[in-house]
Q: What sequence folds into this?
């Protein structure tokens, strides 16, 4: 149960080894949080973070649950698993995703499926599984890590961009559908985030860090917002980008 | 059934429940028969500040004004009152005051129901002498989760009676109660007001060594903004129902409570900020007479000043506010000083902070009051760093053997209840006996794990 000063009691992170996801959870953890579940592919990699979190407060327990981020059919049972012992999910952070930067989809069209399976199909299934659970709870907040790449898809990482566009627009529609249930979704659209996911890539303008994204999420999680950008200036940048005629967009030196 | 977004009076932690307006016992039984694993809770007028009377994903029995239970009856010769659980103190007072009877205990608002008064075991300015509401309940009828109706009193199934008093609605739904009212000669209160320059003088004036026990009602407003030498300064108001000889006029039992103002529903979130609250506190202190002053006040002015402003809780804007009330034993007055210093030092401004010395605890394991000092303050829920600050104060309170009032609570941890309420596990055992299938549940119960045994 969340409390009256905006602290969620139980937090679940899907994509438990995601740097941005971990930063968000670290910032959300404060007195009043009693349980954090990390759902990740690599349990060993998640455990180190689990230990460091658990050390911060005496009353805080942290669990690690294994999942396959591409297995859309398993999302319902994963949600059930993190709710064992009758625990509600107060805040769920969805940070799973693959970037697959630089993949030549012309030569390897089979790779499309890998990206879409995790970023779109499985994530959308997870959104529905969480929404159903939270609707029964009568409240809940889902934080979905989207990307500005999905706001206007560009060449170069078009599959990634299209996967984010799919999950981003679905989440906004689902949030609408959940009106009156006490459940809502916060779609977070970071720009270029300097992290291990983007190691070795050329920094884009308005690049940000996992901690800066976390700060924006913490500031919005208790507000009645549906979409936030990180950094927030990207809201205006992409407000322009999304309206540009394709002829102009094609001429922009973006990637 | 309609779904409804509910919160407590503090307007934080909103959740969605199915709300039911029962008008017969059969309605209640049908809800209980359909209960899901999210459970059921009764709600009165929603004056608990936190999440005590809401039940996310489950069902909420809207009892305020419900005709369920026996009819209203006041024996004018003995002052024995029987009222349905959904009846408010406001309705009772309108009937009883002109007939010379007052409720034995009233909190700072008359807009609470009988059921809520029992479930929270409310207290008032007379706790040091008269105890809490439950001590004046002669008997009550409770519907259990099974649908069975039982009569409970301090002599008839006393364990179940005292588990229900202060039991936050988690033992059953009260249908009606019989209460011993207090005889009054007039509808006025003789009030002595006195300004006290610092914390020490407030404590000295209210301590057992002084003359505090000669006043039926006693409470001190405390300035939680003042620091340094004025830290903890206050305005002490004490009094009793005025005698017929003290009041002029013909109709000495006239009672006409009015709601004079309505707070705007759209107050900006920063209206009650540090500056405006500081100004208010200064004004409130200065407004009180510097020397002890005796006056005659009306019942609403003395007991329920905030009821004069409808929906005053929306003054904090959309962020809502929390009320923090704790108690520490009489011997731990230094901890109380440290807590006040901590709040004042952090600049966490409080609009309404009151200090009171409470009398002995009653037989209810979950009843809040116990011999000691209680402080009540409110603050905007959105203040930065509030969770850390409150958690620090929680530890100070619990380390001193104190505890928190569940009817006000909106943030303490499950551990705080287990440390603060020595007989919590006894209460859980009795509660379990009364509701073995765990039908009763609330957001408060869920957050504090009140139903979870063995942890």
A:
């Amino acid at each position: 149960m969340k409390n009256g000063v905006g602290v969620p009691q139980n937090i679940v992170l899907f994509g438990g080894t995601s740097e941005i996801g971990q930063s968000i959870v670290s910032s959300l953890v404060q007195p009043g949080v009693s349980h954090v579940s990390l759902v990740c592919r690599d349990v060993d990699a998640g455990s180190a973070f689990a230990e460091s979190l658990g050390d911060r407060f005496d009353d805080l327990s942290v669990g690690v649950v294994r999942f396959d981020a591409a297995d859309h059919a398993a999302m319902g049972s994963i949600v059930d698993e993190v709710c064992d012992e009758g625990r509600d999910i107060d805040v769920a952070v969805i940070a799973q995703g693959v970037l697959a930067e630089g993949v030549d989809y012309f030569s390897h069209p089979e790779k499309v499926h890998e990206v879409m399976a995790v970023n779109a199909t499985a994530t959308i299934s997870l959104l529905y599984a969480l929404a159903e659970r939270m609707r029964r709870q009568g409240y809940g907040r889902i934080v979905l890590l989207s990307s500005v790449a999905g706001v206007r898809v560009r060449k170069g990482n078009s599959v990634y961009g299209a996967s984010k566009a799919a999950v981003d627009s679905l989440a906004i529609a689902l949030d609408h559908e959940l009106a009156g249930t006490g459940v809502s979704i916060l779609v977070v659209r970071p720009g270029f985030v300097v992290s291990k996911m983007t190691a070795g890539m050329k920094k884009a303008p308005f690049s940000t860090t996992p901690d800066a994204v976390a700060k924006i999420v913490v500031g919005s999680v208790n507000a009645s917002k549906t979409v936030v950008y990180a950094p927030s200036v990207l809201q205006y940048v992409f407000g322009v980008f999304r309206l540009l005629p394709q002829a102009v967009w094609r001429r922009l030196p973006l990637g | 059934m309609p779904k409804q977004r509910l919160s407590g009076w503090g307007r934080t932690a909103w959740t969605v429940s199915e709300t039911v307006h029962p008008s017969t016992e059969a309605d209640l039984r049908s809800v209980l028969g359909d209960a899901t694993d999210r459970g059921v809770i009764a709600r009165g007028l929603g004056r608990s500040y936190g999440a005590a009377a809401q039940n996310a994903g489950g069902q909420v029995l809207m009892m305020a004004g419900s005709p369920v239970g026996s009819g209203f009856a006041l024996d004018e010769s003995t002052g024995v009152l029987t009222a349905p659980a959904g009846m408010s103190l406001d309705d009772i007072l309108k009937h009883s005051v002109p007939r010379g009877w007052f409720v034995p205990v009233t909190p700072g608002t008359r807009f609470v129901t009988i059921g809520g008064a029992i479930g929270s075991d409310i207290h008032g300015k007379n706790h040091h002498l008269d105890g809490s509401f439950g001590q004046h309940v002669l008997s009550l009828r409770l519907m259990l989760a099974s649908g069975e109706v039982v009569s409970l009193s301090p002599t008839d199934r006393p364990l179940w009676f005292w588990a229900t008093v202060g039991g936050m609605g988690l033992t059953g739904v009260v249908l009606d109660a019989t209460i011993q009212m207090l005889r009054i000669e007039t509808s006025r209160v003789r009030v002595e007001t006195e300004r006290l320059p610092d914390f020490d003088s407030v404590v000295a004036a209210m301590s057992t060594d002084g003359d505090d026990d000669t006043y039926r009602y006693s409470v001190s407003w405390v300035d939680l903004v003042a620091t340094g030498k004025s830290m903890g300064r206050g305005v002490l108001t004490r009094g009793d129902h005025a005698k017929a000889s003290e009041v002029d006029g013909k109709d000495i039992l006239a009672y006409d409570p009015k709601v004079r103002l309505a707070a705007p529903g759209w107050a900006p979130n920063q209206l009650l900020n540090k500056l405006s609250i500081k100004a208010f506190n200064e004004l409130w202190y200065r407004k009180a007479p510097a020397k002890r002053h005796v006056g005659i006040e009306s019942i609403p002015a003395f007991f329920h000043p905030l009821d004069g402003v409808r929906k005053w809780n929306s003054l904090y804007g959309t962020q809502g506010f929390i009320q923090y009330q704790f108690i520490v034993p009489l011997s731990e007055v230094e901890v109380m000083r440290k807590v006040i210093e901590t709040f004042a030092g952090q600049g966490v401004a409080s609009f309404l902070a009151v200090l009171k010395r409470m009398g002995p605890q009653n037989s209810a394991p979950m009843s809040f009051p116990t011999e000691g000092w209680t402080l009540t303050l409110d603050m905007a829920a959105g203040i930065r760093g509030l969770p850390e600050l409150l958690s620090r104060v929680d530890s100070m309170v619990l380390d001193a053997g104190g505890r928190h009032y569940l009817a006000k609570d909106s943030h303490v941890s499950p551990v705080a209840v287990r440390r603060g309420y020595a007989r919590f596990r006894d209460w859980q055992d009795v509660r379990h006996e009364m509701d073995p299938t765990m039908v009763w549940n609330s957001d408060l119960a869920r957050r504090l794990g009140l139903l979870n045994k063995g942890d």
Notes: Chain A has a mean pLDDT of 93. The two ends of chain A are 44 Å apart (CA to CA). The domain at 10-251 of chain A is CATH 3.40.50.720 (Rossmann fold). Chain A has one domain: 10-251.
